[in-house]
Amino acid sequence: MTQLPVERQGVYGPYVVEPHHRREVRAYRAALLLLALAQLGLLLQWHLAGPALLWPWLLVMVVSLGAALRWVHIYLVPLHRALQLFWLLGSLGIVALAFAAGPAAILPTLRQQPLWILAVGPFFAALTGLGFKEFFCFRRPEAIGLTLLLPLLLLGRLLGLLPDPVAGPLLLGEALLLLVLALRKLPVDIEADLGDLSVFAHLAGHG
Predict the structure, then answer these.
(1) In the chain, domain spans
(2) How many CA atoms within 13 Å lie on the side-chain side of 162?
(3) How far apart are the C-alpha atoms of 13 and 130, rounded to whole Å?
(4) Is residue 136 very low, low, confident or very high in pLDDT (cuts 50, 70, 90)?
(5) What is the pTM of this model?
(6) Which of 7, 9, 110, 178 is such that its CA lies 20 to 30 A from the CA of 101?
(7) SS3 for 72?
């Protein structure tokens, strides 16, 4: 059934929720879920079969995070653009690492040569920003996996403070929390992810 536009009252006046707004939220949630499943798939395959053919999972992660950042609603446009820029820079870092080490050696190289984290780090900074948005806007406790565990993991590895037996469980915990976050968003009313569209209009008028 086709959904009709619905008028709402916002902080800065009335606004209309159009069908395309609802499609954007569904696309964002689907991308977030795909991202979570791809990360878990990567970790499980790495554990069960080794790192040789993990690059397809990385490709899905790159595409799904890019899509999530395309459709997410963030009031502050400069912040939104910054997260998209981080995604782009980190994705280019992953491509550079793939050319330098070979697709089969992307993750082993990251583990053995932590300085490569500087190249791919912006990708995970974008993911952290997405988690912070979810925590700040909705107080989702599972978003702590992105806002705290992921930066802790990357900085710990970069500084040589987190050995593999500690880093592995942390990464798995972050991936599971991301999946919980994505699944818990599915039944939530779509307009919760839209936010107050009058705020977007107000900020655009004062930009």
Answers:
(1) 13-205
(2) 18
(3) 27
(4) confident
(5) 0.92
(6) 178
(7) coil
